[in-house]
Amino acid sequence: MDDAELFARQHASLHRFYRLLAGSSKSARLYERDGITAAVVPATPERSVCNGVVYDDASSLERVLDPLAARYEEAGVYAWTVWVRAEDREAAALLERRGHRLDAAPAAMGIELARFSHAPAPDLKIDPDPDPIDIGRLNDAAYGYEDQFVRALELLRPDAAHVYVARLEGAPAACTVALDHQGDCCITLVATLPAARGRGLASGLLTRALLDARSRGCETSSLQATKMGQPVYERLGYRDLGPFEMWERRR
Fold first, then answer.
1. Taking the complete model, does pTM exceed 0.85, yes or no?
2. pLDDT digits (tens, 9 = 90+) for 15-29
3. Are 166 and 174 spatial neighbours (Cβ–Cβ below 8 Å)?
C-alpha cells in the first residue's frame, strides 16, 4: 500500500475521531455536510484540537466556512481548527484570508498491520475494565490541559471506542484509544504521565491495540504524531506520510 492510500485512510479516520468527540460531552454537537465533519465542543472553548474540522474538498469547505464560524461563535467557542493536507494550498490560502493561522503541523503516520511484528510486553499491566474518565485525566496531566480533556470526554462510552489504560503501582499511568473505521484503526488520545515516561508504557499499549485491531480485521492503522511521540511510532513501524496542518482561528 503506497503512502497516498495510507494518508487517505488516516484522513477518513480523522472524521471518525471528531464524530466521537461530538458525542462525548453534554453540550457538544456534530456538524456534517458535503464531506465536512466538525465537532463543536463548548466544554473546551479554548482548545482548538477538540473543536476540529475535517473536510474532503476545498470548495465545499469554502461554502460552509461562514456557517461553521457562526456555529462556533454561538456556542461560545473561541478557538477552532481546520485540518489541511500539506499539498492543499487552495484551502490554506482560503483559511488565511478568513483569519486562520497555521498553528501546528503534526506528522500523519500509517502502518500496514500485516507487517506489524511486535510481541506484547509481558510485564505491562493493562486494566481489564478501564474507566473512560481516565483517558481525559491522563491526557490533561500529560499535556498540561487542566481538566480540558476531562470535560471533553465526560460522556465517553465504553462501547464507543477501544480504550486501553496501563497501570503503574496500581494507578492509571498511560492510555490510548483505538477507533475502527473502514478497515483502518485510528490511534488517538495517547498519553503517559510525565513521571511514568521512558518505561515503554505507551508502546506496550499501542502494541496490544494494534494486535487487537488486526484480529478484528483492520488492515491498517493511522495517527497524527507530535514531535515527542513520533519516534515511539516509528519504532513500531509507522511510516511518516508528511505533515497534516492545523489552521486555527482564535478570537
1. yes
2. 999 999 999 999 999
3. yes
